[in-house]
Amino acid sequence: MIGRLKGILISKQPPALMVEVNGIGYELEAPMSTFYELPELGREVILITHYAVKEDAVALYGFIREAERSLFRALLKVSGVGAKTALSILSGVSVTDFARLVHGGEVSAFIRIPGIGKKTAERILLEMRDRIDGLGLAGGRSSHGPAAIANDPMAEATAALIQFGYKPVEITRLLKAAAEPDDSAETLIRKALKAALR
């Protein structure tokens, strides 16, 4: 079990990153909340990790704070929520806001996150309501990470397109061709998807 990595950040292309520890490069996936707080390439980084063994693969997920990993692990226990959906949630809402949304029964807030439909949103609210207080989510910050997405249409659009399966290079090309200064995230996503279909 790998629970923590301390090494040099040598690659970051959302949702993937690589950290070199004593000459070994560890490939990880991480939510946008973590990517917003990563140092520049070549700098030291400490990540709290979740090691997952699947039938056909082994995966490693990285987080800046324990609160992110705790929420990620709790979401994996929700029926119908896999790692990709859990990362999408962490990319779309801060850990501090997550508890508020669950307690408030904010189905619509979760539906706005790419990859989350109404049934999944309702299941998350139902299954997380009883266990949310025991997760210690207060350690998360709402002034960075996903909160920054909400205030930055380009970042929100990028996070959404990543969850749709587009590669970072492709997203940059699509958004550069489509973006105008006052576009909302929804407009940017729509324009990028139209451009991709041409």
What would you say this structure looks like, in words?
There is one protein chain. The protein contains 10 helices and 5 strands; from the N terminus they run βββαββααααααααα. The N and C termini lie far apart (45 Å). α4 packs across α6, α8 packs across α10 and α9 crosses α10. The longest helix has 13 residues. By secondary structure, it is α+β, with helices and mostly antiparallel strands. A hairpin with a 2-residue loop joins β1 and β2. It has 3 domains: 60 residues, Nucleic acid-binding proteins (OB fold (Dihydrolipoamide Acetyltransferase, E2P)); 74 residues, DNA polymerase, domain 1 (Orthogonal Bundle); 46 residues, Orthogonal Bundle (Helicase, Ruva Protein, domain 3), CATH 1.10.8.10. It has a 5-stranded antiparallel β-sheet with strand order 3-2-1-4-5. About 7% of the residues have low confidence.
